[in-house]
């Protein structure tokens, strides 16, 4: 057992428990936010497992999940817009936690990865994960202020 496997197990234990609790209980706002946070946790666990087991294919899975996870959340935000309009979820804390965890994991993995294609793939996964999470969280919480007014003009 190496340190990467321990980190993946700790992240899975600490991150996925609240995700399962949030998805299984509570109002719709909490469920959608937990789903968004869950994609970030699983993506980071896949990155750590790729290093732990020396399986570069797991990095590809994490890259695909970093693209499709926030896209799925945006679909939920669009389909559930009427239900979320009255009481949008407040996602600043979860977005900050997900972004800082993604940055920490990606920087640590880039530090031990040889420069080249694998490092670029890690950086791209990190950028997609952070930006996708921020955009999806913002879409769930009601969008950007003033964006609706610009579209109406």
Name a few traits of the molecule.
153 residues
Question: Describe it for me?
Answer:
With 153 residues, the protein is mainly α. The chain has one domain (3-143). It contains 7 helices and no strands. It has helices spanning 3-24, 28-52, 57-79, 81-85, 92-112, 117-140, 147-152. Helix 2 runs antiparallel to helix 3 (57-79). The radius of gyration is 16 Å and the shape is elongated. It starts with a helix and ends with a helix. Residues 149-153 have low confidence and may be disordered.
* Annotation, overall tally of beta strands: 0
Choose one word for the global shape: elongated
Name the helicity range: over 70%
The value of Rg in angstroms is 16 Å
Low-confidence stretches: 149-153
| Fraction in beta strands | under 5%
What would a concise description of this structure say?
This protein is mainly α. Helices cover 82% and strands 0% of the residues.
Topology, pairings included?
Blueprint: H1 3-24, H2 28-52, H3 57-79, H4 81-85, H5 92-112, H6 117-140, H7 147-152
